[in-house]
Protein 1
Amino acid sequence: QWQLDMEARLRTLDAMRIVQGTESKPQFTDPLDSGERRELRDYNSRVDAAAGEIWNCVEREQQTHLEAIRDDPGAMWRKLESVHMQKRPGTRGRQVPEHPVNVSIPAQVRHEGSASCGL
């Protein structure tokens, strides 16, 4: 359920395609015009929003897996999948959560001052 809820939140931020890797950073040749600067700024803002959303919606113990990649929401997503998904007998190759990330984050495990992710 966490994955579906998080996908919905990332879609609301217009960032799910970035996380999935189907949208990449715009490539422009210098000097950038105002439209290109705006497009690049928008993309970077959506990357930051996605990374922050994912970070805030995992428990502190899970954040240790993400510290080195906290600026790359796609890498964060793939890391969480690799840590929490496994193939189990009887699932016909489908991946199922080993132990889903807890999204009801008690205040004591969230970073000081961070907002609850609301999931």
Protein 2
Amino acid sequence: PRPANAFMLYRIDQHKIIKQGEGAPGRESDISKYVGKKWAEETQAVKNLYKARACAIAAEHKRQWPHYKFMP
């Protein structure tokens, strides 16, 4: 499997929060659009935290699967 990027990690975290709240967008596509807008408005500090997490996950992925190559 391909390692998650910074936005995907952010979406996973936000999805959990949104699903717990009242008045959350119903469909997954609506949630994705909502989270995409939130990501665009996030501070660089928050984005950097998720980028650091993504880098750590990518490094671990590379360690576990050194010959992995993404082929869509």
Protein 3
Amino acid sequence: MLNFTCFLSRLLLHWRRSKRSSFYALISLLLLCLLAYNSASIFCIRFHFPAKAPTGPAIFLPEYAAGETRMPPPVPAATKIRSGVKLNTRLRLMQKNRNLVVLTNRTAMHHPKRRKRHALIGSVIKILESEGAEQFEARVNNFFEANSSDSSCELRFFMTWISSSQSFGERELYSLESVFKSHPNGCLVIASNSLDSISGMQILKPFAHKGFKVTAISPDFNFLFKNTAAQAWYNQLKQGNVNPGEVSLGQNLSNLLRIGLLYRFGGIYIDTDIIVLKSFAGLKNVIGAQNIDLATGNWSRLNNAVMIFDKGHPLLRHFIEEFALTFDGNKWGHNGPYLVSRVVSRLSGKTGCNFTVVPPMAFYPVDWTKIGSLFQGPRSLNHSKWLFSKLKQIRTQSFAVHLWNKQSRQFKVEKGSIIQHIIFTSLVITTNSSSLV
């Protein structure tokens, strides 16, 4: 600093001997230098580097990104996290599932998005499960065993219902009626918390009065997926560590629930928008193709709206593992039709997993893109002939018809339509057919 002062003094003396204008220029230059020096000293950032790295455990802050989970560095098993959260070093599930949100700091619990996600998950699980869900296994077994003693439970059917009991409407009731029209000695369990209630009993009461065996029981996910890959996934979900995505979480949980029901009990699963046309008695370990490749004749996509499998079938366990390891709540169908398609595609031709893929006409005679044609009445003579031909084909080649409710709810059942004929011949409770049009 002393040398710098001496330099300025000499420079000032030199310029005093020069012209007066040059002196003012010097003063301006000096002021600029002082300003620059002062600014540099104010905004200077000093970094202190310790000689040795701290020996204590590190704290990892979670980072969130849409559709992505950033994993923390590996932590030794004996290491404890300061926040009190213990990390499980067995992270096979987390490493493969990009939609798991790994939390390593309790402060993340107070994140607004996390609170919103946790509330959403809680509300959906509340619809699916009840406090008495632990009795699920006993109730299902008692229902089947009680009805098998008098040979009135020839086939076991399962459905799921994830909405309120008030939203269980005419279409769903038509589906139930069609089951008992073709299987009067069958038994039907609806896995549903909302229907396992007084209001649900009132909905199902007409079937009981007719002697049909149907009941609604709140499901127990912990029992259904015990000792499977889905057990850890479901626990992570309840803790808010799984990103549910944009697709309905209830829909995705229904995809998992139907697999678990067949895995634990065996039987037939059908969606509530399926109209059964004939007996399923001859079907065993079957899943249906939704589309086929016209060039090769091979299926291009399967669907999980109808599945028939023995208890503990290995293909079902593969479905469960695929769901837990590849769950993605942002892609429609990823955890349902596309899931079963992926797994079956990998396992086709391998031994130890015997099953049959039936053609689309079995359960999906009309694709969702053309389902409106089944709701239309005759428009002309040629159209009337087409309707008659299509109806005959469905009745002879199909075991069931998928109504694709998501796409077809907007359609009215017109007089003379294929759907009117199909539903009318499937009724066992409803006597007023005018409600169909």
